[in-house]
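User: Here's a chain of 377 residues. Predict its fold as tokens.
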Amino acid sequence: MKSNTKKPITLFTPLELGPVSLRNRIVMAPTTRMRSKMPGNLPWELNATYHRQRASAGLIITEATPVSPRGHGYFHMPGIHSIAQAEGWKLVTSAVHETGGRIFLQLFHAGRMSHNDFQPNGELPVAPSALSSNGKSPVAPGLLKDCPVPRALETGEMADVIEEHKRAAELAKLAGFDGVEIHAANGYLLEQFLSDHANVRTDKYGGNMANRARLLLEVTEAVASVWHGNRVGLRLSPANAHDGIVHTDRFGAYAHVIRELNRFELAYIHLIEPRVAGNVEAAQFDAGLGSRNFKPLITGDTKLISAGGHTLASGAEAVESGEADAIAWGRQFIANPDLVERFAKNVPLNPYDRQTFYGGTEKGYTDYPFLKSEATS
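Assistant: Prediction complete.
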């Protein structure tokens, strides 16, 4: 007699993201590493090795990948706005697929979180409005420069921003990715439009929440026209208050965005928990902005990925309780290429070295030890 008892859903249970099958629910979060080959911001063999080492993740999401030359905001970011870059990414996707992994590319535009040094002809970065983030841009190893007051995009230029994302999505498909993630978090261009303090426009892209969300939704529509929506994810950071991202009604803003995104039947929505501020743990946070309060707004087969500050225990509990469908880890995957195995065996993790997060070569990138000495590197 067959038992009607269902097996519990755990981190090690397979997950279907639309047509993409994940062998577990442990996701490698997008983490900026700034190790492209120059000139040209090209992905290369070193990046392929790094991603191959971590391909036991159910899903890898690449680091923020600029969709246009003016989308860059950090030195040595691998781009996705040229054929040469797409060819470089093929090395990465092939390496991941050879080991049975799955990988999405994160589509990124820095907006005002950039510097003239990255812009064509030294022009000003673009943004919703001519308001500074008061942030800093790492323009070279060890060199930070103040982000300038940006230039407000003209209404007619929105079509260019949308087209840049669409073209980047096409190049990602050419490069062999399994899907793409739209970056609308962490104070970058698309999140800048959502904020009623960063965006003080008076045209159809500013003012009320419907207008402030317009560009994000138009970008999503364009990307979904290249990839069916069920191969598109989108990242949001409802609690982010860095770099001038202020909301009069923070929960209401992101609730509106999520409800509007439902019509695209996305593969997933990727939410950063309020436990994290920038790239460090938050001492105080608003638990009301956690993923558990947004998940009920997500409809259909769209999954929820929760990221930010999770331990193995908290991630496992979130999945088992149904609060999230998968959990993303960033810093832990940086230091532990075999994170899935370490979690399965519940053994200690390698400590990460923050000094080697951004830029460089193998050190702090591909030289972290595996549990087994015979593991390939």
